[in-house]
Design a protein that fits this description.
It comes from Rotaria sordida. The protein is mainly beta. It contains nine helices and 57 strands. The protein has a five-stranded mixed beta sheet, with no helix packed on it. The protein has a five-stranded antiparallel beta sheet with strand order 26-27-28-32-31. Strands 1-2-3-4 form a four-stranded antiparallel beta sheet, with no helix packed on it.
Amino acid sequence: MFSIFKTIHPPTGIEYAVWARFLSPLENNLILSSANYLYVYRVTPHTSNFECLHTFVLWGNICSITPCHLGPSSSSSSSSSSSTSLIPSKEALFLSFMDAKLSLIEFDSTIQDLKTLSMHYFEDELAKEGQWFNYSPPIVRVDPDMRCACMLIYNSKLVIIPFFSQLDREIITSDTIPSTAGITPGGPRSSSLSSYIVHLKKLDPSLTGRIIDLQFLHSYYEPTLFILCESSRTWVGRVAVKKDTCCSVALSINVAQKSNPVIWPVDKLPFDCLSCLSVPKPIGGILVLATNSIIYLNQSIPAYGVALNTLTRDSTKYPLRPLYDLKIALDLAEAIFISNDKVLISIKTGDVYLLTLHTDTMRTMKEFTFDRIGSTVLCNCLCKCDENLIFFGSRLGNSLLLRLHENAIIDPTSIDTIETMNGDENDNNRNDYHEQSELINESINKTNLSDMIDNDIIIPNNKNDIIFFTSEIDTNESKKQTYTYSFEYCDNLINIGPCGYAIVGEGDSEEIRLLQRHLPPHYQTTPLDLITTSGTNKCGSVSILQQTIKPELITTQALPGSIDMWTVYSSTNEQNEKREHSFILISQETSTLIFQTGIDITELEQGGFLTNEQTIFCGNIGEQLIVQITRLHAILLRDSTQLQMISFENNPIRFATSLDRYLAILTTHGIIHIYLLIDINNEQSKLIEYYKLNDKKYTCVNLYVDHSELFTTTINNNNNNNIYSHSTILNSPKQETIQQTVVSLPSNPLDSTEFTGGDDEDEWLYGGKTIENPLASVTTVEPMDSSNISTTTKSLPIINNNNNNNNSINIIPTTRWLIAISKDGTLTIHELMTDETKSATIRYEIARFNSGLKILVDVHDASPLMTHYLGKIETSCSASVYELLVIGLGPKKDRVYMIVSFFFF
């Protein structure tokens, strides 16, 4: 099948995005899906850039992603043990697939891969009810209190999946055992209830039609599911005779008794209802989004709806309040709550609006206010990340990561409020507001999206009603506080789809002509380029796909017989702001050419370099000196002056590498010599033998300097840092416990203050007060932190951002490591000490590394859990490792990769 179909480029359009603690309980990750690809990104805390951590290829196209944690949420146990420290746990993911398949997966840090917790298959003939093709993708929703999940299949049946039994719930919410709230996914639990299917057509006559959307409601004692449906079909051409055909029901789900009574029916909703959003606590209720209107529903208070345009006059009889000078439609729009009273809406034109819900002291909906923030890409999904970061996923353009800024303006003359006044006064005020809004936009525009984002604010017209179009708060000085919003660009993900017209062509460049002149005909290949159109409207683009990197050639020179080439610095240009290479060494079969750079590149005929032997390595050591390695000699130089020569005539050199002050030499007999440079700043600089490995016959060696504190053997009890990231300490099998620390996370400026309105009746009926975000006050902190990583070779002080101690400084140590592989396939990692009197120490040893193990386990690790993942290892492998490279990638060098080349014989 591979010869018929081949994916030459993975999909780039983003379809779904969620923000969850997937890889680690200490850090949130952005999980994206594109067709059958699942991407896990990390948003760096300082630069707010994307960092791809994992890419998983699944065996089917993903229909939805829903995060959850298997166990009661903090709200379930907060009323019983409010003072108990809450231990966060990793979250699992519900992945749904066509037609009615569901998988529950989590990330296993031990094997660094996905682990399937459960799989559900509901595609039987009885469930299909004679359907030949299913047009309704499955919809998965999870209860906010993590008590159960549901999946809508075939648009007529509801699958209920309980997370834990009633016995588990009583144990967890009891005061005697409060620590059970930290149940981890996949951990040992008592017997849970099995999933079951609910036939919606048998519950209520209104559920016999089309199911539009469903959401779990907040602040209910039992899981309550709100279902938005259309009981009888209609369309625009039949609105004159048939309108308001949508309705809704709320089901109270009792997973123990498998009963689902209808507790709250609502009928005669507009026919163009599209979706619904569950309003978080303390407001509660549901927000119904229609094409031309927005309606707020709550079981205990009257409904409130607004019209977004004038089409609602003839399309619905539902009582709606008009919003003058606001003419938008929500078809193909995406909406998400970014706080308990603010909704971010992106419409099909790319414009972004912020909807604010205003309530009174009795939690009755008072009014809606709209703020136009700007214009972005045509998004397909929205996801709220930390620190006001909003991800706009798109299938038509590049996906964007933007930061939402909220700016308060306390000025009674800049209030965007229209009170009862005549039309002439309104016209004058409108002109004044235009001038003020331009000044505001110039002062708050901090983004580089010049063409994609504008900060125009909607201007109300001259009506006699009091209409708010910006957020306003009463102050003690009887003034109004106005907020303006703006976007700041952080990062983007390039999208080359959906592809339109495409053409394949051969590019014409200097390097192609050079290859055609010098390479033999049977080695010449024609690099082809694929040019395609993608996107639509303002997201349209032309994409060029190349097979390889095409450098820009400045000059060329033929050097026949050359084998390898190196460039090195000298001590004379070390203090320059822009360091440039001083020498170029070109190795040939029996000699070495030395060139000195400058205004012109000239060959160096005299100097301390060895030119009558083949050079196998050349590099800088100690940042000032130069080391040249040939088959029989090792030469230490300062500029072009030779300082020391070490002979290896009895044991020729096979490979060499240098790093910092260390030089590693591998001989043909399989012996590794480690040399240390001493007295760097004077003329007596020399190399001394620091360490020697001759217990085995080694095949390759590499040096690595660690700035990230990932390579460590001790635990640094640093509890002041509030920036979390994944590290090898967390993923190590030896790390069985995690240190618990109480920290305060940075608050979200968009989150409103404590809700002061309402009475205690709802609290008494539907449960006590709950903690909306358990990590906002207490969390579990890993003592290792990989985010404060230096990119230089020295230990740099890192200033802590903790509010309690702003002057605290964390010193990140720099460690140096030697990685070697022997002929029998054993990999050893040695720590090189900074003191030359102390020898290197073996910290990690992996047996049968040449077998291509998926998991690398230390032979001294006696953890019995690893035997399950290792399985049976083939010991008769004939592969030999002949090249090894350990490198730290990423902006802070905290992504350590080991690249190995195997040779099979």
